[in-house]
Design a protein that fits this description.
Helices cover 11% and strands 33% of the residues. It is mainly beta and 89 residues long. The protein has a domain of 61 residues: Alpha-Beta Plaits (2-Layer Sandwich), CATH 3.30.70. The radius of gyration is 15 Å and the shape is elongated.
Length: 89
């Protein structure tokens, strides 16, 4: 399988990893990934737990097509919520 790759300014090869999903169970809604994403791929969402009738904020992927594969979101996530994948060409 071949993946999309690029070259950094320094000449090394780099394979971007794009957002696939965010694990709702792990997400604490801290917003660090939201602040780190310059491409507006992420957004907050209220998750309602029907058993306890409580609400908590989580982050969701709102515009995956804007993802540049920089991995800033996953790098700032304290809980490791992100699933990332390189793009096949």
């Amino acid at each position: 399988m071949a993946y999309l790759t690029s070259t950094t300014k320094g000449g090394s090869t780099w394979t971007p990893a794009f957002i696939e999903a965010i694990d709702e169970e792990k997400c604490i809604g801290c917003g660090r990934c939201f602040k780190a994403c310059a491409r507006k791929c992420l957004g907050p969402e209220d998750l309602v737990d029907e058993e306890t009738d409580s609400t908590r904020m989580i982050m969701t992927v709102v515009n995956a097509d804007n993802c540049s594969g920089c991995v800033a979101c996953a790098s700032t996530c304290p809980k490791g919520c992100f699933s990332l994948k390189p793009m096949e060409v």
